[in-house]
Design goal:
This protein is an all-alpha fold. Helix content is 95%, strand content 0%. Helix 1 runs antiparallel to helix 2.
Length: 150
């Protein structure tokens, strides 16, 4: 039984490690998507500041109504885009947090299987040592009995 239990634990541990790597890849992808959404939000924020400043400069000088209207409409579009980007960023952050929790669970499972495998291996070694000790004692007793005969 000890000979067959070691490969089983090795296989289960290897499977858990493969699953962990897959889940870590999903987490890394979720992090990359979250970072990309964050970068998009930052770019939109910069554009909002830039175009608000441009609008203020236009308003300080003589300008046409159409010129200021175009800037205002573009700023409104940027605000709408920023709102959608913030929603996407929240969703990406949620997906990342879930993926991170999945990594923690998968790693705990991998560690559990590794410890169980080590425990099974240790138990098998102890059982083997017990058998060897019993055999040595038996051989010693047999040898003693043979040497004790007149």
């Amino acid at each position: 039984m000890s000979g067959s239990s070691k490969p089983v634990w090795s296989i289960l541990t290897a499977k858990a490690e493969r699953e962990l790597r897959g889940i870590q890849n999903k987490r890394d992808n979720a992090l990359n998507k979250k970072n990309a959404a964050s970068q998009r939000k930052d770019k939109i924020d910069k554009l909002l500041v830039e175009y608000s400043n441009r609008l203020n400069r236009v308003l300080e000088r003589n300008h046409s109504q159409d010129e200021s209207t175009h800037y205002r409409q573009f700023i409104i579009h940027l605000h709408n885009l920023r709102d959608r980007t913030l929603e996407e960023l929240e969703n990406r952050e949620g997906a990342y947090k879930i993926a991170q929790k999945d990594v923690v669970v998968a790693d705990a499972e991998r560690l559990k299987l590794k410890r169980l495998g080590e425990r099974a291996q240790s138990k098998a070694i102890k059982e083997q040592q017990r058998k060897e000790n019993k055999e040595f004692e038996s051989q010693g007793l047999t040898q003693f009995n043979l040497n004790s005969r007149p």
